[in-house]
Amino acid sequence: GIGTGLALSIFIFLVQSSHTEPVSGVTNGKRSVGRTKRPVWELQTLYKEGDRILLLFLQGYLFFGSADRLAKMFLTVTTGPREGQVQYCILSFARVVFIDASAAQQVKASVDKAARSGCQVLFCRMNEQVYNELSVVKAFRSPDHSVYQALRARGADANDIMQLGVTGIDTAGVNSIDPHVTRRATEDFNAVGSGIHDAFDTESDALDYCNDKLVDQYCYTPRVDWFKIAYRQACLTGSRLDEACFEAMGGLPEGTLGRLRPFCVVHDRMEHYTVLEGLEPTLWFIMRGAIAQLDKLSEEDLLVSDGGQFAAEVKGFSGRGGKRLRCRLTPGHVAGKVSFFLDRGVGLVDKEIIPFLQVSSRIAGYAEVWALTTSKWNDMPLDLRALLLDALISHMADDRQHSYLTE
To answer: Between the chain's N and C termini, which has fewer beta carbons within 10 Å?
Structure first.
């Protein structure tokens, strides 16, 4: 009868799911880097050492059988001829719908085996159910703060977040808990801000974390140029990049920024999430902290309806408050170049296509940027404009080069 048919359907579904390949795609850190903009010497290191990072895209329903095949793949990449070569393995659960308790236990066992071979496993793009199961078996112990931002964006309330042992999270203005967002309390998570993480919101966050580890290990040797060391310290400690370092990074003659400063408005101590806005096209020279280039859609635009024919979220915007990170610009870089030059030249298709700029919560506690408007650019001496124009062309070409490698 109906019961027999239902049972048979469930059995067939389980058999098919157990035979579905759990990995839909793979890449490594040589072909994919995070969205934090890096100078060329760091990109060269990542291109050389990037095969130490492996990124696996998982899919479907993970049960015992499919998790067993995933475990065998782990064994392949972390033992034998490649043992010790892969230092970081990132698992993206973006296409994983469900994971059962037995599969979660197998993933945990694989994580432990990988660790014994010198490979750290990191998790990202987990839905609520997957996050819950993996956290219970302690597959990860130190979620990055971006994970909690994503939980809040999905409806978790302050009490739910605090049950995870998190401290220092701004919990003001959070709505009541979504019934689908259930979390089991654990005291085994490391504190947010500890600097050692193994779970992230997005693949880019996980890649940025691994990229930082590799450049610290393989790029910054005692023989590195002084300005490169200064740049790295500005990123690690949130210190200010002085004018001489900025000039050396951009190939500008000594004293160029001293000549530039009188034409700029200096914005010091800009708080996190401050939006950079100007009445006219503006170049933003970053001296401290980081500036995020973000796309944003309203709640109405996030859902594509097309006259009621279908309903789906716009791809790439389901994360933190309908925002999508294009790039995170670090000290020594210049933001706003595309809109600055297109608005003065052939013109923009539409200002809405240009990402908006916002002070990033990473890198430093606040930002310092110098704002150079179009009118002030026109007031500058021709030789200073020529120097900056040459440097900015190189900056834009370097931005494009970085985009070739971005995940």
So the answer is: N
Q: Is 125 helix (H, G, I), strand (E, B) or coil?
A: coil
Whole-structure pTM value:
0.82
Tokens of 112: 């432990």
CA distances from 300 to 172, 176, 297, 316, 322 (A): 24, 21, 8, 15, 10
Nearest to 57 by CA among 94, 107, 101, 11: 94
Residue 325 bridge partners (DSSP): 294
Spatial CB neighbours of 307, under 8 Å, sequence gap ≥ 6: none
Cα 187 from Cα 191, distance rounded (Å): 10
Tokens of 5: 């048919």
Beta strand 265-270 pairing with 367-373: antiparallel
pLDDT digits (tens, 9 = 90+) for 123-133: 999 988 899 89
> Bridge-partner residues for 313, per DSSP?
303
CB 54 within 8 A of CB 89: yes
Nearest to 140 by CA among 160, 154, 163, 124: 124
Question: Three-state SS for 110?
Answer: helix
The residue assigned the tokens 């993206």 is 92
Which value, to the nearest 10 degrees, does the dihedral of the CA atoms of residues 97, 100, 102, 103 take?
Answer: 10
The answer to whether 60 and 99 have CB atoms below 8 angstroms apart is no
- 282 neighbors 373 (Cβ within 8 angstroms): yes
pLDDT digits over 229-241, tens only? 999 999 999 999 9
pLDDT tens readout for residues 188-233: 444 444 468 999 999 999 999 999 999 999 999 888 999 999 999 9
Q: Where are the alpha helices (DSSP H) in 275-322?
A: 299-302
Cα angle value 20/21/27 (rounded, 5°) = 155
Q: Does the structure show a pLDDT above 50 at 246?
A: yes
- What residues form DSSP beta bridges with 99? 62
How far is Cα 361 from Cα 359, in angstroms, rounded to an integer?
Answer: 7
SS3 category, 27: strand
Q: How far apart are CA 165 and CA 174, in angstroms?
A: 17
